[in-house]
Specification:
Number of strands: 13
Oligomer: single chain
CATH topology of the largest domain: Aminopeptidase
Number of helices: 12
Shape: globular
Strand content: 25-35%
Largest sheet: 13 strands, mixed
Radius of gyration: 21 Å
Number of domains: 2
CATH class of the largest domain: Alpha Beta
Structural class: alpha+beta
């Protein structure tokens, strides 16, 4: 796909992408070229937009998608926490010119709407986008503050959680995934977990997905496994991704017959210790389903910490007339799904919202 240049640099190659991230330095694995390739489907084009003003640099990544049976496109973020990253931004930065260039890029390239999940731990994202589109508060995510003393972190756990973890450490062993056979077993456990929770089709990642994450040189992805001492069986595993000073709890799974051992709690506690000793600052456990703070998933995560961060979404309708026409053509009723014209069971399964 060829993009029109509207005074904002369009980066599509790995070397330039990596060079820009290294120049900015403050980013997460969701911003990397590798992760955008992993998330790329046949109809998605990864791009990184670069804006420079004096000594200020702003970059924002997207996946550009063709809107079927039209000449139009839209832009979305990868799954996870994305949004703009920047260097040398101060509180008094005037974002007028940046927004003007960004809007021009969208308009000149027939991009009708833009959707991005924002990053709860990176500074100035809302400041940079303020005045273009709408930013919505979606919910909360849970952070374990790795800047705290490691014993204080543990003391902040709920008492019942400590009991579960102590029990797990008595009955289980932890190891890092090392072989293809162990990866196959982890994927099997992960699929079993997805079946149990009736997960959407999107969540059933194939082996290539895991291999690409584990083999990337742009971030450190690792899988921890839990083995039951009594039976010797591998009962659970967790995939964690570390980039700069941030650790993300990305995926995990537990065999149904070993749920009583609560191995996921042990996995998170072990990674907390490793990340603290490695000098990281944030350990993001994520939030509840759909950003909810009253569901069982959020309650589970919040048993580790009460350091909650806001999770926000950015929605932009670039061309209201065409947007409305697309919604009308597809006969879409009331929904909070964005962009509305993509509302369907298929798109709900790809967890756009």
């Amino acid at each position: 796909m060829v993009f029109k240049n509207s005074g904002i640099e369009i980066i599509t190659t790995e070397d330039k992408w990596n060079k820009l991230l290294n120049e900015i330095r403050d980013f997460d694995f969701y911003h990397t070229y590798d992760y955008h390739l992993i998330e790329k489907l046949d109809d998605r084009y990864p791009i990184l937009l670069k804006y420079v003003e004096n000594d200020i640099i702003i970059a924002i990544p997207f996946l550009i998608r063709k809107i079927d049976d039209t000449i139009y496109y839209d832009a979305t973020s990868v799954y996870g926490y994305s949004g703009p990253i920047s260097k040398n931004i101060t509180a008094d930065f005037d974002n007028t010119m940046f927004l003007k260039k960004l809007q021009s890029f969208f308009m000149e390239n027939n991009i009708i709407s833009v959707f991005s999940r924002l990053h709860p731990y990176l500074e100035h994202q809302e400041d940079l986008l303020n005045g273009l589109g709408k930013i919505f508060h979606k919910g909360k995510v849970v952070n374990i503050d790795l800047n705290l003393n490691i014993d204080i972190q543990y003391r902040n756990y709920q008492n019942r959680l400590k009991t579960y973890i102590n029990n797990s450490r008595r009955n289980c062993l932890l190891k890092k995934l090392e072989t293809d056979e162990e990866l196959a077993e982890f994927i099997e456990i992960y699929y079993e977990n997805m079946n149990r929770v009736k997960a959407a089709k999107y969540f059933y990642f194939n082996k290539d997905y895991f291999n690409q994450l584990l083999n990337s040189e742009q971030f450190n992805a690792e899988i921890l496994l839990v083995k039951d001492i009594k039976s010797g069986a591998t009962v659970a595993g967790g995939l964690f991704v570390t980039t700069n000073n941030i650790v993300q709890y990305h995926l995990s799974g537990t065999r149904s017959e070993f749920l009583h051992l609560t191995p996921t709690k042990l996995l998170i506690d072990e990674m907390r210790i490793e990340a603290t000793e490695g000098g990281r600052n944030f350990f993001n456990l994520g939030g509840g389903l759909g950003g909810k703070i009253d569901d069982s998933l959020f309650k589970f995560k919040s048993s580790f910490s009460k350091d909650f961060r806001d999770f926000k979404l950015w929605n932009l309708i670039v061309n209201q007339k065409i947007y409305d026409e697309l919604v009308e053509e597809r006969n879409i009723g009331e929904t909070s799904f964005f962009p509305k014209y993509r509302f369907s069971d298929k798109n709900l399964e790809t967890r756009e919202y």
